[in-house]
Amino acid sequence: MSVLDHGLTVGDGVFETVKTVQGRPFALTRHLERLTRSARGLGLPDPDHDEIRRAARTVTDATPLPLGRLRITYTGGISPLGSDRGDNAPGLVVALGEVSRRPDSTAVITVPWTRNERSAVAGLKTTSYAENVVALARAHGQGASEALFANTVGQLCEGTGSNVFVVLDGEIHTPPLASGCLAGITRALAVEWTGARETELSPEVLEHAEEIFLTSTTRDVQAVHRVDARELPGAPGPVTAKAMRVFDERAGDDLDP
Ligand code: PLP
């Protein structure tokens, strides 16, 4: 990839992080479909799924890891910005890193910055993650591992790299995609497997929800034991613990051969 690739210089790129278990990618088809949706959102040509699958196989075969993460980055190459991309070659990098098993629970903060649900790139997984980097740095500075955003109309949206779920009166809720959150693969599975509802939520629910949890490729389902100054003793609570169990039981369901 050129050092002038616009994926590096201006964030003209899209990406996926895919969990691997014993070298087998989890939910790869869903990830590749989302990569294509994100690419189309940026006007990039459709990525070649077979090429990415081959590259993924090459790196997972080269480095056997019990638990890993594939980072697939697909970029605009070096065509003049905003022009017809013509036959400019897009950039593709597939890399594998190790992940350690995440703790069962974590602390999160809320941040005053907003996700723009009406942005041209809302819901796309682009390489422009600077906003997330700033928010995550604030979280780390406060002993937390994630920062939660509201959107421009004051609804709860998502974390820097995760989706958020709350338990209210024993029922699981998560913000709808219209909130501007990413269509998380883990979020979709959690909705499917737990019957969670998509509900417009005010960030104030974080002050009284019985339980809160996050979902992402690298966290799976992770309970929240502190949100800002509020402690949630006993996290994971019973509903979150059940969601975690469902995930553990079904996590092998969609592994690539
Ligand atoms: N929201 C954002 C902004 C993300 O970057 C991610 C993950 O990378 C997620 C949510 C969770 O998505 P997934 O479950 O597909 O990892």
UniProtKB/TrEMBL annotation:
Cited PROSITE patterns: AA_TRANSFER_CLASS_4
Keyword presence, Lyase: yes
Record EC number: 4.1.3.38
Pathway entry: Cofactor biosynthesis; tetrahydrofolate biosynthesis; 4-aminobenzoate from chorismate: step 2/2
SUPFAM superfamilies: D-aminoacid aminotransferase-like PLP-dependent enzymes
Catalytic activity: 4-amino-4-deoxychorismate = 4-aminobenzoate + pyruvate + H(+)
Cofactor(s) listed: pyridoxal 5'-phosphate
Keywords of this entry: Folate biosynthesis, Lyase, Pyridoxal phosphate
Pfam families to which the protein is assigned, alphabetical: Aminotran_4 (PF01063)
Gene Ontology BP, a term: folic acid biosynthetic process
Gene3D superfamilies, sorted: 3.30.470.10, D-amino Acid Aminotransferase, subunit A, domain 2
A molecular function GO annotation: pyridoxal phosphate binding
Keyword S-adenosyl-L-methionine: no
A cellular component term, taken from the record's GO annotations: cytosol
Primary enzyme class: lyase
Similarity remark: Belongs to the class-IV pyridoxal-phosphate-dependent aminotransferase family.
PANTHER family: AMINO-ACID AMINOTRANSFERASE, AMINODEOXYCHORISMATE LYASE
Assembly mode: Homodimer.
Name by which UniProt lists this protein: aminodeoxychorismate lyase
Organism: Streptomyces fulvorobeus
